[in-house]
Amino acid sequence: MANRVNNLGGVLEALGDLEGARRHFERALKIDEAVYGPNHPNVALYICNLGGVLEALGDLEVHAGNSSERLR
Predict the structure, then answer these.
(1) What whole-number distance in Å separates Cα of residue 57 and Cα of residue 48?
(2) Model confidence over 18-64: pLDDT tens digits?
(3) Tell me, what's the pLDDT at 71?
(4) Range 65-72 average pLDDT
(5) Cβ(30)–Cβ(37) under 8 Å?
(6) Which residues contact 59 (CB under 8 A, 6 or more apart)?
(7) In degrees, to the nearest 5, what angle opens at C-alpha 71 toward C-alphas 14 and 39?
């Protein structure tokens, strides 16, 4: 399920809907964190995807803070 949500986020990002992509990447991240925990490769991928969108939106500082908390 999370993989499909993530893929839809990628489509929205490619279409220029960065807020829509952000919502989908956040949802995919939340799903797989709940299923696999914070140290799963899928979680890392979704953090990366979310970071790319947040950077494009100018919200990278928010992402950097959230990511550093996840890495602890």
Answers:
(1) 14
(2) 999 999 999 999 999 999 999 999 999 999 999 999 999 998 776 55
(3) 47
(4) 54
(5) no
(6) none
(7) 75
pLDDT over 60 at 69, yes or no? no
CB atoms within 10 A of CB 14: 9
DSSP 21: H
Place of tokens 């953090």: 47
CA distance to 2, 37, 46, 68, per residue, from 9 (Å): 10, 21, 10, 23
C-beta neighbour count of 6 within 10 angstroms: 22
3-state helix, strand, coil in the chain (%, to 5): 85, 0, 15
